[in-house]
Amino acid sequence: MKSPIYVSALALMLFAAGCKIDNYPAPDAQLYGTFLDAETNEPVEQDIIRGSTIEYIEHGYASQTKQVMLVKNDGTYRNNLIFANQYTITPVRGNFVPTEPQEVTVAGETQLDFKVQPYIRLKDAKIEKSGSKVIATFKIQQTVINNVRKIGLYAHPEPSVGEPMRTVLSETEINGATDPNKVYKLEIDIPSNSNNLKTGNQYFFRVGAIIDAPESKFNYAKAVRIAL
Amino acid sequence: MKLTKHIFMLLVLLTAISCDNVLDKQPLDKLQGENLFSNPEGVKLYMANLYYQLPIEDFTFFRQGFNWNTGDPNNGGFAPAMITDEAVHTEFGDFIGNDDFQWWDQGYKLIRDTNILIDIIPTLDVSEDETKALVGESAFIRAYAYFALVKRYGGVPLITAVQKYEGDVEALKVPRSTEKETWDFVLKECDIAIANLADSWPGGERRATKWVAYALKSRAALHAASLAKYGDRAPISGTAVDQKLVGLEKSAAAEYYKAAIEASEAIISSGKFALYKPSPASPEEAAENYRKLFEDPNIAPTEAIFIKGYARPGSGTGHNYGIWFQPNQTANGWPHPGRMNPTLDLIDAYESYTNPGQSAPVTTTVAGNDVSDYNGFDPAKNYKRYDDPAGIYKDKDARLWATAILPGTAWKGQKIIIQAGFIKPDGSAQLFGGEPIKVGSATIYPYGAADRTQYSGFDTWGGNNTRTGVSFKKFLNEGVNVAPGWNQTVSDWADFRYAEILLNYAEAIVESGTGTATKGAQALNDIRRRAGHTKDIPLTIDNVIRERRVELAFENKRFWDLIRRREYHTLFNNRVRHALVPVLDLRVTPAKYIFIRQNIARLNPATFDYKNYYRYVPGIGANGLVQNPQY
Predict the structure, then answer these.
(1) Nearest to B275 by CA among B454, B501, B471
(2) Is residue A93 within 8 angstroms of chain B, CB to CB?
(3) Who among A68, A92, A166 is closest to B574 (CB)?
(4) Contact check, Cβ <8 Å, B376/A215
(5) Helices B179-196 & B210-230, crossing angle to 10 degrees?
(6) B19, B23, B24, B27: CA torsion to nearest 10
(7) Beta strands in chain A (DSSP E)
(8) Model pLDDT for residues A40-87, shown as the tens digit of each residue
(9) What ipTM does this complex have?
(10) Nearest to B443, CA basis, from B580, B576, B602, B586
(11) Taking phi first (over 0 means left), then psi (-120 to 50 degrees means alpha), and beta for anything else, what does residue B513 get?
(12) Could you tell me if A163 lies within 8 Å of chain B, comparing CB atoms?
């Protein structure tokens, strides 16, 4: 008569123990923000692949494992599934002068914008179709003394166009300092790229420039949509 | 009384049982360590296993690992060349992934097995010569293993004696050494091997000799030197960089180039080695000599410095190049042949005998100024027309003809047909499929023949036909109809051959600006002469690199060349690889062939990320090691 009691007690114990293990709260906080040019307060345009990354380390663990977030084209980022906790957050390998790590408390909706100094600002950028060509003109303002490595005009059917994501490009090597007053001009010939630029379709064009610094990424003006 | 007797009997019984050491029994199906090593034959057996584990990048090396010919060897026919600009796969377009080319657990297993032997050598009752040979061989194997590790991971834990578990896991954890210390260890082990190994083995066994160890040192030192010289082309940051676990100082380049020059020079000046058939009478003869060298490297004992053999067809003792890479027409019943497609990018690199010293991109039009136009067929262009579809490759370097099966050339007694479609008499193009058409009384088929078994190009059926315009030839055996099953190919692999040493030598001289430039130029031009060239070219880095690309194509060198010279991210930045597409032009009678330079169909652009210059270190949670940057 006694054994059924034992068995049910055992079952209850196992059940209780089994429940316990997985009782951690789900990630219930959100972290988001924008990379802003410290001087102009405009978002800093990025590459969607091989763009700037944000490394963050959650406090309270010995392993100090770095996690990463990617930044969107328009310079914003968002993580809707992050644990509420203390973090050390550092934007790294970007298109701006490296910044210091920050200690941040994430809880609920947390907005964290990064004020950065982009290596290069592309000013007065204009991209227009002219005859059988797409012509871009712009000025370059560099914020550091390093050389500007190259400038380019990139085309792709998607708005996240950039140097690593393009089907057609036109680049010029600079490898020197740039004159802020000079108007740079790049052009893409449409007929000689007929495989990738089809008349009647719409494509996105974007100008960019890269500074000669370790692990630097491209700086961009906004992408422009042009119907060919 | 009776009870006492029982107790006594029980005691006797228990004693008897306890004497029978059940738990101390030795397994009957395994050889014991002391027996194995007390017998020279046992040592040989053990050594054979170590050689089997060597990370030789041969026919069974794929991104999944080494010796990929046991168990289920079906990897779809994906070869390392397809991660480079040498080739693409017929069916798949994948590029490099994080888990590709890992070699951590297997590496440390080989190192442990070698350390066991090294610990036991002094206790063996063998002659002094044999001891010396064992010391040399085990150092060679360890150098080979650590070279494979350091080129993948940068600095790694240097474990030089057998580790014993004595209750403390922490005591077994060895931190990573710096990348510099690891390279220096590899070269030091090579030196030990060089000092202890003999010139040759009495029975001609395929085991390490002094010269094989020199060859390894030549290759490893050149790799380290290039990393030091060009590391800043792809700067990376992170803890592993701060602790110098990855990366070399620029100043280290000089000593490594010096080591590469000296090791190569030792082989060159030994007088024991030479190129196979170094002065052919014609390009045709050069092509045939070069082809035969890879069909069976054993015919060239002076060129093949170290050979890995494949003895019998069957699991683990054969490989699968024969089935995967045959053109479709000679598939001999295998359902998925023709999977290695050499790219136009590689074909363009080969020189023309009419203009030595330059890559000779294939010109498809009379104007010839449109080699960078990959937009497909353009009716306004004046295409060059050929009766013979291989005619466009006339005068191209003999090694191209021996490396790739060109359209319209013969292979295994068949004319290999590679055709992507036709230009109709009215001038419109029908490419990559569609119905046959009638021209006069003749029926013209898009792929060049009526039946799927009669052509080898562009039809996507079965994922079988080349999509670059040529098929693969190097290493395939023309005389053998390979059986349509796993591991039926038993051709051997030359891991080190003299031509590579000459190229290492030339590169180290030109890159370091030291050594004797005239000897470097001679090394370069000797290889070219063997390929049917008659005019010498100067020693420049561009000439050496082009020569490496064509001479060592498909020998799994290109991947590491792009890594060590930090050129991968520049070459593979949204890279689209290209095809040379043969098309039948029906606008003229009789019909002739024209060629279109264009992007390879159905293939995504490929981008190489900086972090891929190092592989990730597996298991850092357990082994406590510092991870490589960005993983």
Answers:
(1) B501
(2) yes
(3) A166
(4) no
(5) 160
(6) 130
(7) 29-37, 53-58, 67-70, 76-82, 85-92, 102-106, 109-111, 114-116, 120-130, 133-142, 148-156, 168-176, 184-189, 202-211, 219-220, 224-227
(8) 999 999 998 889 999 999 999 887 888 999 999 999 999 999 999 999
(9) 0.84
(10) B586
(11) left
(12) yes
Reported residue count of chain B is 631
Give the 3-state secondary structure of residue A115: strand
CA B50 to CA B109: how far, in whole Å?
Answer: 10
Cβ pair A195:B375 closer than 8 A: yes
Mean confidence (pLDDT) of chain B: 94
Residue B473 has what pLDDT? 97
* φ/ψ of residue B537, rounded to 5: -120, 155
| Residues B349 and B358: beta-carbon distance below 8 Å | no
Tell me the residue length of chain A.
228
What is the per-residue pLDDT for A18?
60
Long-range Cβ pairs for the range B34-43 (8 Å, 24+): B37/B117, B37/B120, B37/B123, B37/B124, B38/B124, B38/B125, B40/B126, B40/B130, B43/B117, B43/B124, B43/B126, B43/B134
Nearest to B328 by CA among B446, B449, B486, B487: B449
Determine the 3-state secondary structure of A164 from DSSP.
coil
pLDDT, tens digit (0-9, with 9 covering 90-100), for B425-465: 999 999 999 999 999 999 999 999 999 999 999 999 999 99
CA distance B236 to chain A (A): 6
What pTM value is reported for the model?
Answer: 0.91
Question: What does the block give as tokens for A6?
Answer: 């034992």
Provide the token pair at B626.
């510092």
How far A227 CA sits from the closest chain B CA (Å)? 20
Q: What's at A60, amino acid-wise?
A: G
pLDDT of residue B19: 54
The alpha-carbon gap from B598 to the nearest alpha carbon of chain A, in Å, equals 9
Burial of B127 (0-12, 13-18, 19+ CB in 10 A): exposed
Sign of the dihedral through C-alpha B347, B348, B349, B354: positive
Q: B607, A164: Cβ pair inside 8 Å?
A: yes
CA dihedral B52, B54, B56, B61 (to 10 degrees): 70
Closest CA to B382 of B404, B397, B361, B367: B367
Query: Considering only residues 74 to 103 of chain B, which have any Cβ-Cβ distance to chain A shorter than 8 Å?
Result: none
DSSP string, B121-168: GGG----HHHHHHHHHHHHHHHHHHHHHHHHHHSS-----S----SS-
Q: Which residues pair with A140 in a beta bridge?
A: A122
Q: Which residue of A has its CA nearest to B238?
A: A92
CB A46 within 8 A of CB A72: yes
- Residue whose pair of structure tokens reads 């014993």 in the numeric block: B164
Q: What is the DSSP letter of B171?
A: G
Q: What is the pLDDT of residues B52-111, one digit of tens each?
A: 999 999 999 999 999 999 989 999 999 999 999 999 999 998 999 999 999 999 999 999
Residue B610 touches chain A, beta carbons under 8 Å: yes
Q: What is the DSSP letter of B365?
A: B
CB contact under 8 A, A49 and B607: yes
* Residue pairs spanning A and B at CB distance below 8 A: 33
Question: Which residues 6+ apart lie within 8 Å of B519 measured at CB?
Answer: B265, B268, B505, B509
> Rounded CA gap, A224 and A205, in Å?
5
H helical segments located in B61-104: none
Q: What is the pLDDT of residues B463-522, one digit of tens each?
A: 999 999 999 999 999 999 989 999 999 999 999 999 999 999 999 999 999 999 999 999
Cβ(A207)–Cβ(A155) below 8 Å? no
Report the chain B residue with the minimal C-alpha distance to residue A68: B630
3-class SS at B305? Answer: strand
Q: What is the mean pLDDT of residues B353-359?
A: 95
